[in-house]
Every structure is written in C-alpha cells, then in structure tokens.
Specification:
Low-confidence stretches: 319-323
Number of strands: 12
CATH topology of the largest domain: Rossmann fold
Radius of gyration: 19 Å
Order of helices and strands: EHEEHEEHEEHEHHEHHEHEHHE
Helix content: 25-40%
Mean pLDDT: 92
Strand order of the largest sheet: 7-6-8-9-11-10-12
CATH superfamily of the largest domain: Thiamin diphosphate (ThDP)-binding fold, Pyr/PP domains
Shape: globular
Strand content: 15-25%
Number of domains: 2
Structural class: alpha/beta
Largest sheet: 7 strands, mixed
C-alpha cells in the first residue's frame, strides 16, 4: 500500500510518470494547470499503489512524493534543491540529474561544503536550482574554474555540471587537461547529442545520420567525422580517475545512474581521484519528438553507440574478483 501526492503546479505534462507506473495508476487530467500544461493525476487508491517510487524517480520537476505502506516517506524532494521551477522543456532529463546530484550530496552529508560550477548552455541557470554556492563559468571553461576553486579550497567539494556542446566542443581542451592533471573535482556531463539551448545545432556528440538544424540531411561522417565518445577518450589517460556513463531516460537507468554519481563524489570526498560521470539525456524539443518518443530514441539509438558502464576506476578502489 502506498500514497502518491502530485504537486499540480510543478507538472509540465511530460508523461514520464505515466509510463513509469507499473500499475498504470497515473493519467492525464482533462484540465490545465497555471503553467498551461495538461497535468497528471493519481487515479488509483492507496491499496492499489505499492509505493515503489518509480513515478517520483522519473519526474524531472520534483513534483511527486510517495509514502509506502509503513507510512514512512520513501521519496522526498531533497533540501539540496531550491523550490524554483526549472526552465527546462517538458520531458528534459536535466531536472532528473539535478535531483540525483543534490540527493547524493545530501546523503553523503556534503551539501554544506559543496561548490558547483555551471557554464553556458541549458544548465546556465543551474545556480537558481541548486541550494548551495555556485560559480558561473564562460562557455567550456567550467573545469578551469573548478580547478581554481578546488586548489584554493581543497576542503570543499567542487563539481561542474556541463552539456555536450559545452564540454565536448569549446571545452574539449579544458576537460582533457583537467582530467590528465588529475584535478580532484567531479564532472557531471550531460550528453543529449545536440546543442540544446541555441536551437538544435549539430554537436560533437551528434549521432551518425542524426538530423539537426545544421545537418538537415543527417550527420555526414565524411564531412564532420565521428561523434566523440568522451568517457572512452578520458579513460585512456594514465592519470587515476573514475570514469562512468549512465542514462536518465527511464526509472531503471536513473537508479543505476545515482549509484555512479554517488561513487564519483565519494572519490572526491576521499581525495582519491578525478571523477567523471557522463549521462545520456533527452532533448525532446530539438529532436522533434514527444518525451516518451525521446526516451525510446535514447534506448534504441544512443545506448548502442554510447555503451553504459564504468570505464575506469582506480585500482585501489576496485573490489577483488572472486576466485
């Protein structure tokens, strides 16, 4: 038995929770909320709901809370985020990754000593959503700003939150050398295979044949080369590092992604190494897809090209194999 509470005003009508609910207990309403979105409603009873929290895990806008049968809240909005509504499009998974990052920092007791760095891109307003100190960096320069902050205050937890147009393009040199120097920072890297904020242009991570506003006939590999697999590239460096790639397009992958983000911050907390988590994310608006279609596209097109998993971890942190 479980209880689901949906905050109507925060709903953007993306429908991710509808797909996530294994018992089909969430549906679209017939009305619109103040934001003009067709919001969702919980149509089941407490006896029907198992309290699995998959709906809340999938929500990009922190609009759902769940209690389980023991009357204990099993999912609550973290204090690491402000109450401000995000500017992200319906179905964009930036909001999911914001929440995971804040949850991990809260669970590790690090919120009070964290400094975030956001550059130009869709994440440009992240300082309004994270409930701790933030720097704003020039396009692509977040690793340099984070390096300065961490070296000046090594007692702080410093991370960058970057998109693929920012990190893999103009910031390619920055991230490569920060990783090679082994800076004790954490990088959260969202890869949606496109320039999201500026109109959907081709990015360094755009898929082969993928149509964008600057490649209307699809990415031509002979003209533009292959997409850059950043996690694999960084994992070739000799410097000790934790390098992983997860995805946020559905509840199952979101749960796994949180473990990767937590491990990355644990490495920084312990002073182990540079840590980097790439996240396959959606961009329904610039892909020209519905939120649910975008989720399917990540699974069908991006995951095969950008395989998920841990690519590198310091030898001392690995668990010995059983013999």
């Amino acid at each position: 038995m479980g209880h689901v509470q949906i905050e109507v005003g925060r709903c953007k009508g993306c429908g991710r929770c509808i797909v996530a609910c294994p018992k089909h207990l969430i549906e679209y309403s017939e009305a619109l909320n103040e934001g003009g979105y067709q919001y969702v409603t919980f149509t089941g009873s407490e006896e029907d709901c198992s309290g699995c929290t998959l709906c809340a895990i999938s929500c990009p806008d922190q609009g759902i809370e769940v209690w389980n049968h023991r009357e204990r809240q099993t999912f609550v909005n973290t204090t690491g985020l402000t109450e401000k509504m995000t500017h992200y499009c319906p179905g964009c998974t930036h909001g999911v990754v914001h929440r995971l990052t804040a949850e991990v920092l809260e669970e590790l007791g690090l919120l009070g000593q964290t400094i975030g760095v956001a550059p130009v891109g869709c994440s440009v307003l992240a300082y309004q959503y994270f409930n701790f100190d933030m720097f704003e960096a020039a396009h692509g320069r977040a690793p340099a700003v984070a390096t300065g902050a961490k070296r000046a205050r090594p007692d702080k937890i410093v991370f960058t939150y970057q998109g693929d147009g920012d990190l893999a393009s103009i910031g390619g040199n920055q991230i490569l050398h920060a990783a090679n120097r082994g800076e004790k920072i954490t990088v959260i890297f969202l890869n949606n295979a496109i320039y999201g904020m500026t109109g959907g242009q081709m990015a360094p991570t755009t898929m082969p044949g993928q149509r964008t506003t600057t490649s209307p006939f699809g990415r031509d590999l002979e003209d533009t080369g292959h997409p850059i697999r950043v996690a694999e590239l960084l994992s070739t460096l000799a410097t000790p590092a934790y390098i992983a790639r997860g995805a946020a397009h559905d509840a199952k992958h979101t749960v796994r992604l949180k473990k990767m983000i937590k491990k990355a911050f644990e490495h920084q907390r312990d002073g182990t190494c540079f840590s980097f988590v790439e996240v396959l994310s959606t961009c329904p608006t610039n892909w020209g897809l519905s939120p649910n279609e975008a989720t399917d596209w990540v699974e069908a097109e991006m995951v095969p090209y950008y395989p998920l998993g841990v690519f590198k971890e310091p030898a001392a942190a690995k668990v010995p194999e059983r013999v």
